[in-house]
């Protein structure tokens, strides 16, 4: 066995574990049966963290006020966080209670949520729901949450989809990516009785959870960070796939790049800070929830996995041809490629983008290369300061 073939195998083992993890979740991604709804008695605070969202905040508030739940058991609370526009006024006009927050030192969604949770827990809400300011929700959102809370869940995540999937080829590919990352992974983790994780939008927390695990997550990916804190406290986050929140995704390349850099930078930071500790804790406590959380933060973005598998497969096939026999590395990378193909295909089937989305997958290699280069061109981490993504139809300032 040559040094090159050994190197191919050694480099292929981590990516092989990542692909095996994705394959297991793919095979477990059938829809789970939703629990039956019980008595409609729980009181909800619907919290909307917002920074300069005057354009769309009224539509989000209207969507939340239209949920199918007794009106006297629902309060919509908008956190107008360091806003320089009319977000607060438009939210009030739409029927929301507004918490104005100005703190130039502690800026970002994590701090806005901390203030909102502290404010809400002074009232009588049984559960707190977080919805982003550019989001529409399904009417059954609270009934789906209530059914799980009544059955003993402490935290629940709704399905988080794309509000504008057919605006461009880019938004359709994002919808497919979220079909895999949000729906497929969440379904698989739920059926395996793991923690489905938090997605930042459509999150529900019981009062008792927030009293036990106060929100202390202020990074660029505060949802992932808080989900880890919940898992380490011994609780899993359940998935309510029949309830939906739809967030607006940017179709343009410049704004999408900025958004992706923040997400990927934040996840790299979480992997460095928490991945090894979660893995060690999972092995020490023999805890499958922690083990899954460790894999979730340590598994690289799909673009990086795909590029690595493609390069490994090409090199191993060339080496096999020159050696005159099939080498083990070629088998490993071929299996990884098959696992990724099934994962992406399943994500497409769950995305709702139809034939047009399938055709857009033809340009996905370019999208994958673009995403992979972001890691090289910009490594971002740091604090979770508000960096508002420009919406479609807004002028560049």
Number of DSSP helices?
Answer: 14
- Report helical residue fraction: 40-55%
Mean pLDDT: 90
Sheet with most strands? 8 strands, mixed
CATH superfamily of the largest domain: Spore Coat Polysaccharide Biosynthesis Protein SpsA, Chain A
Radius of gyration: 22 Å
Q: What is the CATH architecture term of the largest domain?
A: Alpha-Beta Complex
CATH C-level of the largest domain: Alpha Beta
**Which sequence of strands runs across the widest sheet?**
3-2-1-4-7-6-8-5
Secondary-structure-derived class: alpha/beta
Could you please describe the fold and organization of this structure?
The protein has 397 residues and is α/β, with parallel strands linked by helices. The protein folds into two domains: 9-28 and 300-377, no CATH class; 44-271, Spore Coat Polysaccharide Biosynthesis Protein SpsA, Chain A. The protein has 14 helices and eight strands. The protein has helices at residues 3-27, 57-65, 87-93, 109-120, 141-150, 169-191, 207-212, 222-232, 253-285, 288-298, 302-323, 328-351, 354-360, 364-377, and strands at residues 44-50, 74-81, 97-101, 127-130, 135-137, 155-162, 203-206, 238-247. Strands 3-2-1-4-7-6-8-5 form an eight-stranded mixed beta sheet, with helices on both faces. Helix 1 packs across helix 11 (302-323) and helix 6 (169-191) packs across helix 12. The longest helix is centred in the last third of the chain and has 33 residues, at 253-285. It is globular, with a radius of gyration of 22 Å. The termini are far apart. The model has no long low-confidence stretch (mean pLDDT 90).
């Amino acid at each position: 066995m040559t040094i090159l073939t050994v190197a191919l195998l050694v480099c292929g083992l981590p990516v092989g574990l990542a692909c095996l993890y994705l394959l297991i979740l793919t095979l477990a991604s059938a829809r789970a049966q939703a629990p039956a709804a019980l008595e409609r008695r729980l009181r909800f605070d619907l919290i909307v963290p917002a920074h300069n969202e005057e354009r769309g905040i009224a539509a989000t508030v209207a969507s939340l006020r239209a949920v199918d739940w007794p009106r006297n058991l629902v309060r919509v609370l908008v956190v107008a966080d360091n806003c320089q526009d009319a977000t607060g006024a438009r939210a009030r006009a739409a029927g929301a209670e507004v918490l104005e927050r100005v703190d130039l030192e502690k800026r970002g969604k994590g701090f806005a949520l901390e203030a909102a949770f502290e404010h809400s827990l002074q009232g009588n809400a049984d559960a707190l729901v977080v919805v982003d300011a550019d989001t529409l929700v399904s009417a059954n959102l609270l009934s789906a949450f209530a059914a799980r809370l009544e059955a003993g869940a402490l935290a629940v995540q709704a399905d988080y989809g794309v509000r504008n999937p057919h605006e461009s080829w880019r938004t359709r590919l994002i919808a497919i990516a979220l079909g895999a990352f949000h729906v497929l992974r969440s379904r698989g983790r739920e059926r395996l009785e793991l923690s489905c994780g938090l997605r930042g939008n459509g999150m529900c927390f019981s009062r008792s959870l927030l009293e036990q695990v106060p929100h202390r997550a202020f990074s660029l990916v505060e949802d992932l960070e808080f989900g880890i804190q919940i898992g380490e406290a011994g609780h899993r986050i359940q998935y309510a796939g029949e309830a939906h929140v739809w967030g607006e995704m940017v179709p343009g390349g410049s704004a999408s790049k900025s958004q992706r850099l923040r997400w990927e930078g934040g996840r790299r930071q979480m992997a460095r800070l928490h991945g090894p500790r979660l893995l060690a804790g999972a092995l020490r406590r023999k805890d499958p929830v922690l083990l899954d959380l460790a894999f979730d933060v340590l598994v690289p973005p799909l673009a990086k996995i795909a590029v690595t598998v493609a390069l490994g497969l090409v090199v191993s096939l060339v080496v096999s041809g020159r050696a005159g026999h099939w080498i083990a590395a070629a088998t490993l990378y071929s299996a990884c490629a098959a696992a990724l193909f099934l994962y992406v295909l399943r994500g497409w089937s769950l995305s709702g983008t139809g034939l047009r989305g399938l055709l857009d997958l033809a340009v996905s290699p370019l999208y994958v290369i673009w995403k992979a280069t972001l890691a090289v061109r910009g490594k971002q981490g740091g604090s979770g300061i508000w960096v508002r993504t420009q919406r479609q139809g807004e002028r560049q300032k």
